[in-house]
Task: structure prediction
Amino acid sequence: MRPPNTSLFVRNIADESRPEDLRREFGRYGPIVDVYIPLDFYTRQPRGFAYIQYPL
Result:
């Protein structure tokens, strides 16, 4: 059996969004382990989505 999913996928975030901003907004739903905002390989700009990981 697979362990429960603890990652939240968030779309359409602003390019100016920082991990601290997302921690503040989504931290009200529980403690956050990690916030990952992927960057475009060539432009090094945010790709417009993020992953927020909560503990098990």
In short: Helices lie at 19-26. The chain has one domain: 7-53.
